[in-house]
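STRUCTURE:
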């Protein structure tokens, strides 16, 4: 049966006059109803592992705005936790994890096949959402890409330049590659379970892909994405995959062909006229309004939204931000963006 949902049509390569719309971090702290549910859950991780409340926050932006797609509420760092890493969030600072710096740290992790024990509440969230989402809204599952997840596992926190991960890659390549292998296997099983629970699309977030250069990009960003995509499509024929090699720059060229993803997410640094010529020629692109417009609003938000839609109107496009919406965004600006796209 041909896809009827707007997002699935774009991912299948259809050019639409009005592109489907969703937003990274659309369930998040900029929404008062999210903050209320998060307070009810107690903290962020308790919210992720509470299927009823996680489904509730996933649905909030759908009710408020009527997006074309909904992204499962969870986090990329649940996979390290399911592999046995300690994980906690420090308010105002971000995630903290136990670190991986030597062989015995890797040996202490669980095999990829054991992640489901921890992650089963996430699959329950997906099952609830498949029942409760409006019929025309597509449910997106997701995971972090192995490199991005590894940068947090190695450093034990977010890092501005991914220095500790680069140091391990260059100083102990066998350990680094064994860690990437473990994450890759876990990611395949995790995404596969999300698809079995009802996710209709999956997205692979490689937020730090841009810090891998040259052959390192090909080996540690492109190749894991290719492998995950190929295995998911082998297990679940026809499942669409969105790749997001953030800040890949010139490496965006040919990424979809080389990895087999159906759509490539563009960050806000990418010039849309360039992307139309060099990336969209291979299929669907997603993006890429700069998140600061959601804080500032006004005419620049409207002008920039129109410019992106127009530049990418000659091929399949999914409208999104170039990165997650920030907590200081004004919820009214999201409605302005949507009205601008749907009303011209
Ligand atoms: O997009 C969505 O709405 C779906 C849910 C989602 C979250 N995180 C919820 C979240 C998704 C897809 C992610 C992905 C994620 N998580 C990435 C990749 C995308 C990106 O942003 O680059 C990364 C690197 C993480 C790791 C992570 N999670 C960090 C660094 C932080 C702290 C920074 C911050 O924004 O506070 C988180 C926390 C997090 N994940 C929040 C949300 C809504 C904020 C938690 C809160 O409520 O306090």
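SEQUENCE:
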């Amino acid at each position: 049966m041909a896809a009827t949902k707007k997002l699935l049509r774009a991912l299948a390569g259809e050019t639409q006059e009005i592109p489907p719309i969703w937003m990274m971090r659309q369930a998040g702290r900029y929404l008062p109803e999210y903050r209320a549910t998060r307070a009810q859950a107690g903290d962020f991780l308790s919210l992720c592992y509470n299927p009823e409340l996680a489904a509730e926050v996933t649905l909030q932006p759908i009710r408020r705005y009527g997006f074309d797609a909904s992204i499962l509420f969870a986090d990329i760092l649940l996979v390290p936790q399911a592999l046995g890493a300690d994980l906690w969030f420090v308010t105002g600072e971000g995630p903290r994890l136990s670190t991986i710096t030597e062989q015995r740290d890797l040996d202490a992790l669980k095999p990829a096949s054991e992640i489901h024990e921890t992650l089963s509440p996430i699959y329950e969230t997906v099952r609830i959402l498949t029942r409760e989402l409006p019929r025309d809204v597509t449910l997106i599952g997701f995971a972090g890409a192995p490199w991005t997840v590894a940068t947090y596992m190695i450093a034990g926190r977010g890092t501005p330049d991914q220095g500790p991960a680069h140091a391990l890659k260059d100083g102990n390549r066998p350990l680094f590659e064994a860690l990437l292998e473990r994450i890759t296997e876990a990611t395949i099983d995790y995404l596969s379970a999300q698809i079995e629970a009802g996710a209709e699309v999956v997205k692979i977030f490689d937020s730090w892909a841009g810090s891998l250069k040259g052959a390192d990009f090909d080996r540690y960003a492109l190749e894991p994405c290719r492998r995950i995509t190929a295995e998911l499509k082998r297990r679940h024929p026809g499942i669409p995959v969105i790749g997001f090699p953030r800040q890949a720059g010139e490496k965006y060229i040919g990424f979809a062909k080389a990895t087999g993803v159906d759509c490539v997410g563009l960050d806000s640094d990418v010039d849309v006229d360039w992307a139309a010529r060099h990336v969209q020629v291979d299929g669907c692109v997603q993006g890429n309004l700069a998140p600061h417009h959601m804080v500032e609003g006004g005419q620049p938000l409207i002008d920039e939204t129109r410019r992106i839609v127009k530049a990418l109107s000659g091929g399949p496009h999914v409208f999104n931000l170039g990165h997650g919406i920030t907590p200081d965004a004004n919820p009214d600006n999201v409605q302005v963006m949507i009205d601008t796209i749907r009303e011209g």
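REMARK: The longest helix spans residues 173-197.
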